[in-house]
Each structure stands twice: as structure tokens, then as C-alpha cells.
Amino acid sequence: MRAVVVPQPGEADALTLAERPDPVPSEREVRIRVTAAGLNGADLSQRRGFYPSPAGAPDWPGLEVSGTVDAVGDDVTEWHVGDRVCALLPGGGYAELVTVDAGLVLPVPEGVDLVEAAGLPEVAATVWSNVVDLGRLSAGDALLVHGGSSGIGTMAIQLGRALGADVIATAGSDEKAAFCREVGAQAAVNYRTQDFVEAAHAFTDGRGVDVVLDIVGGSYIARDLDALATGGRIVSIAVRDREPASVDMGLLMRKRASIHGTTLRARPLAERTAIIAAVREHVWPLVAEGRIRPVIDSVFPLEDAAAAHRRMESSAHRGKILLQVG
Ligand SMILES: NC(=O)c1ccc[n+]([C@@H]2O[C@H](COP(=O)([O-])OP(=O)(O)OC[C@H]3O[C@@H](n4cnc5c(N)ncnc54)[C@H](OP(=O)(O)O)[C@@H]3O)[C@@H](O)[C@H]2O)c1
User: Is the CB–ligand 1 distance for residue 126 below 6 Å?
Assistant: First the structure.
């Protein structure tokens, strides 16, 4: 099969189309003939040599795919050859074939095109596990989403609204802030020209927000805490500001607030399987009802993976970038 691999870590041109042996599913695995693969921030870090695949996974990037089941292991009863599916992977999605544990596979939600489905598993699983599981977002809460125009951000805005929360987002331009409103945020600020702490207090009549989804870290964490309501939760899923965060612990206590952090790929298989089951139960019906839709920026052919990475690095995109494989 063809795969896009990284023989030497580096810039986007490090991505190289190569032949690799067809993977063979083990007892509990499904093999998927890939239609499309989603790009994620982690793929860029992996390409630069900073975020290797975990042991046992292919050593090239790709955390999610859509496609058609092409073979199943002896112990798999829930999936059949020909099923249209999408899946969360520990790596290796930039390829014509992938094998994946049956518990990480999802049906393509009703009303979603097979290519677009590749953009759903990683954002749905990340946002559900962080904003809902850890952040305990519920109806009536206020949610602050940083990077609202990103793949993660567009899912967080839509899921927050679908669950009955009020959503305010940040983005790096007025145009992207307007896009966040189109996706469903009731308010959105350009973080380059506006103070998101002030905006969060204005949005909540001075109460503060209940949950912050943070993708910046560093100096943002103290500001997130300033933006938080009593009892609020900060969930941290990425670090762009490499300075250590400095937090006023007295304020954290007075606000009875909490700060959580996770990375999805490192979680044990049982936890990822439970997250996928929750996504299927709670998020997929919202997608089928049209209350959440995949937000796709662009689709590149597999062989143009380098151009797709460059687009993501330019930060010009809104929503998900996909690679079309088959
Ligand atoms: N921990 C986990 O399990 C997990 C799982 C999935 C993704 N992630 C992380 O979540 C982040 C979003 O993922 P993605 O795939 O959606 O990537 P993406 O589409 O590339 O999003 C990155 C976003 O960050 C925004 N951004 C940069 N600096 C910002 C700032 N100071 N304030 C607010 N927004 C800022 C960019 O918007 P502007 O250009 O407008 O600034 C861009 O929209 C990535 O860092 C990714 O690594 C973590």
C-alpha cells in the first residue's frame, strides 16, 4: 500500500510518499480501506520529530480516518466487511490501509459524507473527553473556547451550543471571529485586539465563564482563571506559550476552581474506547440531527500532504484539513 511517511524529521517536504506492507488485523482489530484522513496539530509535531507514534503503531502520522471495512480479526463481531466507518488511531492514518482496535471505530454518522467523516473522530473525542467529561459542561453554563476557528474549536462551539451552554470564542482575526459566530458562538473576540478576560465578564454579566478550553498554556492560564466563575474549570489540551504557567493559588482556592490537562493519544486503550462509546452515544445523534456538522476547510490529495501541512502551519484554515486517499 501507499503511505506518507517521514524518513527524516523536518519541514513539510519531509513528508514522503512510500510503499509499506499491507497491515494485517489482529483478533480484535478491523482493517479499513481509507477514503480520507484528518490532519491534526500533533501530526505537525510528529513530522518535526517531537511527538513519535506510541509503541506498536505505525511510525508515520495520521490520528483519524474514514473509509470502508476491508477485513476483520477473528474476535470482531460488531463490524463487517463493507461497513462505512471512521476511526480514532494512535498513528498511521496517512495511508491506503489502517488496522485499528474495533473499540476505536465509529459508524459514519447519518447525513455525513464519507470524506468529511474523517474530520470528526479526533475533535469529537477530544472535545467530549475534555469539555464534558473533565470540564463537566452542562446546560446553562458559559464556555470560553480559545482558537474557535480551529478544528477543535469548531467542534467545541457546536457541541457546547448543542448541550445548551452559552459559548464565547477567541480567534486571531476579525474574520475568524465572525466565522466563530457563524459556527454558533454567541460572542467571539479577536484576541490580538481585544482582552478576552474583559469579554468573558461582559458576556456573563460579570459572573465569569464556567469552563475554558485552553490551547495556549503559559500566560493564558492566569488569564483563564481571571475569566472563570466561582466553581469554574480550565481544561488545557495544548501548549503554544512555552513559558511555565504562573497561577495565583489563592485565587484558584477562592474561586473553588480547577485546572485539568490531558492528551488523548497517550490514554490507555480502555479509556479511549470508553470515550469513543460516549461520542457514539451522545455526539453522533447531534450530528445526525444536523446540530453538529463537520467543518471542513480543504481536502488535499494524499500525495499533496506537504501542501496540507503548510496550510495548517500558515493558520489560514478554518475547521479541518483532510487528505483524500481513495
Ligand atoms: N490534548 C489533546 O488530546 C489534543 C487533541 C487534539 C488536539 N489538540 C490540540 O488542540 C489544538 C487545536 O487543534 P486543531 O487540530 O484544531 O489545530 P488547528 O486547527 O491548527 O488550530 C490551532 C488554532 O490555534 C489558534 N491559536 C493560536 N494562538 C492562539 C491564541 N493565542 N489564542 C487563541 N487561539 C490561538 C489558531 O488560530 P489563529 O490563527 O486565529 O490564532 C488556530 O485556529 C492544537 O494545538 C492541537 O495540538 C490536543
Answer: yes
- The CATH number that applies at residue 48 is 3.90.180.10
63 lines ligand 1 (CB under 6 A): no
Task: Look at the chain and report how many structural domains it folds into.
Answer: 2
Any atom of ligand 1 within 6 Å of the Cβ of 152: yes
What are the strands, taking DSSP E only, across 137-236?
A: 142-145, 166-171, 187-190, 209-214, 228-236
pLDDT at 257: 98
* 238 Cβ closer than 6 Å to some ligand 1 atom: yes
Domain span at residue 84 reads: 2-119+294-324
Question: What per-residue confidence (pLDDT) applies to 238?
Answer: 96
Give distance in angstroms: CA of 145 to centre of ligand 1. 10
Is 272 a domain residue? no
- State the amino acid at position 203 in one-letter form: F
Q: What is the CATH number of the domain that holds 243?
A: 3.40.50.720
Which cell numbers hold the place of 192? 490580538
- Tens digits of per-residue pLDDT, 18-47? 999 999 999 999 999 999 999 999 999 999
